[in-house]
Amino acid sequence: MLILTCPCCGVTGEETEFHAGGEAHLKRHGPGSTADQFEEYLFMRENPKGVHFERWRHVYGCGKWFHAARSTTTLEVYGTYAAQTHEPPKDLRDTISKKVPGWTWREFQ
Amino acid sequence: MKRYSAFAIAREAMRHHTGWNRAWRDAQPKPKYDVIIVGAGGHGLATAYYLGKNFGITNVAILEKGWLGGGNTGRNTTIIRSNYLQDPSAAIYEKSRSLYETMSQDLNYNVMFSPRGLIMLAQTHHEVRGYQRTAHANALQGVSTEFISPERVKELVPIINIDGPRYPVLGGLYQARGGTARHDAVAWGYARACSDMGMDVIQQCEVTAVRTEGGKVTGVDTTRGPINCDKLGGVVAGHSGHLCDMAGFRLPIESVALQALVSEPIKPCMDVVVMANTVHGYMSQSDKGEMVIGGGTDGYNNYTQRGSFHHIEETVRALIETFPMVSRLKMLRQWGGIVDVTGDRSPILSKTPVEGMFINCGWGTGGFKAIPGSGWAMAELMAKGQSPLTDEFSMHRFREGKFIDESVAAGVAH
Ligand SMILES: Cc1cc2nc3c(=O)[nH]c(=O)nc-3n(C[C@H](O)[C@H](O)[C@H](O)COP(=O)(O)OP(=O)(O)OC[C@H]3O[C@@H](n4cnc5c(N)ncnc54)[C@H](O)[C@@H]3O)c2cc1C
Ligand SMILES: [Zn+2]
Predict the structure, then answer these.
(1) Tens-place pLDDT, residues B62-79
(2) Tell me, what's the ipTM?
(3) A54 and B343: CB-CB below 8 Å?
(4) Which of A87, A97, B258, B351 has a CA-to-CA distance to B32 between 20 and 30 Å?
């Protein structure tokens, strides 16, 4: 059972209070983009064995969306952060680097 | 290979069972093979088997990071059916189901195929219409299924409660030749047959890198050293994304945990498989008497082979309304597997951007039933570069929007 802290309302709750929303930081390309880019956005996934950035919604709480960084091999939650960003905050990335040296995930590491 | 037979059992009984051979050789890796298959689950082993049997390609190694059949093949609830909606699915799943009918004889290995019949319950009006549509589609595809009344459901499954307050049974999609088989035996039977053809089944040999030269595959690095090959088949289910990452491309797949559980053994009480997709639960009774129960997947990416407890709770809670007697059972054990789920809930059997590398994955929550058919088709794809059974299952169908939408047929995990 995962334990997540909602960065919007500050509540720490069990996974049943939240709803998983899939891979985070997908880039939706605008008009004029290629079929490849649209395929990437809609279907292609990192699905890493390791560090994963993902979206969650605090459904049985404040109802807000947020982001989480988590390991898919240990289920450790490294931290959660606001939804209104295109990438995980620097301090969270540093925390992850201490625990998982050399991790990579799409364009950031 | 010594054939198994009633005579052999009698003979061995007379000499204290000292004459049985190993079922397959404990092979050591050679420097080079014509074909390497990564993953000794059912699909990998079946692919190798049909490469040998149908195409005479026997210089083959099957590499397995753990033990043979220790992935989803040894963790699933063994439901076999072919009542899917789309034509390409019907073709490959029905091919597979029909191969199960004679698998024990073909492999000289008892896989305990039990075509005991399977019902998918319709518990909402939406489902009634959905399954009636599937029954019509199946009729056109030549797959024998029928839509049956609640009374007929009750006749086939006396322990069912058809007028539950929330989810009454309004009918069911019945496939009389659906059923179950013994999952480990399927892997062991294929491994024995592959080994007998001279193939190497190599356990505890994890692929750690895919080597390429000028866009063409040349071999793999493993925990037991580098091995070269002309063709590579990636058949690693939940680890497909990870394997393809080694080869430098991504897949439209996410890996999530799917769990199952079994009860204490009880006397025979249900001789068909029942699936209740609306409430996300399904059940059958094993030959040992255990009620085998499965449910839905977890919502988040996971490689740990353990799922969340609340999913088990939800599955059992849902089944209790339809099968009140379940509430009296003690559950013996529970486990999880990592399944590879695609956007349209259909598998990928495909060439890849790396020349000479093929993948067979995306069977998600429902690939046990597909093992022989998938192996048959994948072997043809790898040997000839094309197979009528795999044409529609290319990894590029997503870009083209040519989905094989089975979200209704695969609405619950099985
Ligand atoms: C709980 C549960 C219930 C299910 N119920 C049903 C059901 O009732 N009916 C049905 O049809 N399907 C069911 N399924 C789905 C079914 O189990 C799978 O679709 C099917 O077994 C997949 O077979 P496979 O051979 O592709 O994968 P697997 O059996 O998982 O084999 C893949 C193998 O690859 C190995 N591997 C991975 N990475 C590497 C590497 N780098 N190097 C070497 N080896 C590697 C793994 O160790 C594994 O043994 C269920 C699944 C689960 C988890
Ligand atoms: Zn909140």
Answers:
(1) 999 999 999 999 999 999
(2) 0.94
(3) no
(4) B351
